[in-house]
Description:
Mean pLDDT: 81
Oligomer: single chain
Strand order of the largest sheet: 1-2-3
InterPro entries: BON_dom, Lipoprotein_DolP, Transpt-assoc_nodulatn_dom_bac
Largest sheet: 3 strands, mixed
Domain BON: 37-104
Structural class: alpha+beta
Signal peptide: 1-19
Order of helices and strands: HHEEHE
Number of strands: 3
Protein name: BON domain-containing protein
Radius of gyration: 21 Å
CATH topology: Histidine-containing Protein, Chain: A
Keywords: Signal
Helix content: 40-55%
Amino acid sequence: MSASFRRFALPVAAAFAFAAAGCASTAKQASTGEYLDDTVITTKVKTELFKEPDLKSGQISVETFKGEVQLSGFVSSRAAIDKAVAITRQVVGVKGVKNSMILR
Length: 104
């Protein structure tokens, strides 16, 4: 291996290592792929909640992190909470639901 090749290969290998580390997920940060998956899940959940005429979906906030969906906001009945949670659980890709909705 020539010296010029080694001088070139080391910085290139280091750049790839840093790039790969930047795409990995941690306990508090999702990888790029996980972030995109979470965005799709959030959109699907919001769409399904919007389709339900008994829910005021504008008052329910949806956030997703690594497939775990958190529902928050104010709702008018326990039935609305149960319905929102049930709809969310049926969305493909949802690994769990955290209910932070509050009865008003």
